[in-house]
Amino acid sequence: MSEIVNRVSQSSIITLDLEEYYPEGKRVLFDISPWLFQGIILKEKEFRKHVAEHSWDIYRDNFVAINCSTDAIVPAWAYMLITTRLQPFASAIVVGDLNDLETHLYKEVIDRIDLSSYQNKPVIIKGCSNKPVPLNAYAWATEKIQSVARSVMYGEACSSVPIYKRK
Predict the structure, then answer these.
(1) How many distinct structural domains can be found in the chain?
(2) pLDDT tens, position by position, 73-98
(3) In contact, 145 and 16? CB cutoff 8 Å
(4) CA-CA distances (angstroms) from residue 153 to 78, 134, 150, 159?
(5) 54 within some domain
């Protein structure tokens, strides 16, 4: 009987697991609708009072998504005002929902990936993950890795889908 050889472990394929780049930290959705009159009308004086009286330090080292859960028309300055109060405490701030926040965090992470180890190599961008990896992260990783890799695949080494091959 012949010895079983793990050809995957002996290959030059490099796996990029986006889950390993998951930014650790608490995610917070900050809904401004309770600060609006009847949940839909921003009255500047009352809104500024809420902003001034709120305890912003509770967001220390948190990733914060600022949104309005109602169909209110909220002027840009309202989000800007809240951002000025969050900035000394929060690790990251976006206007949007938690998915927008996750997408923003991954964009920052992918922009910082060192490409040197992927130069002229076949790369698999790992699929399934237990952490929330947004779809945009896969697109951005592909875009970045494609510039240096010999090939890009998606999935696992045992069952990958070819995405790109340099000619």
Answers:
(1) 2
(2) 999 999 999 999 999 999 999 999 99
(3) yes
(4) 43, 18, 10, 10
(5) yes
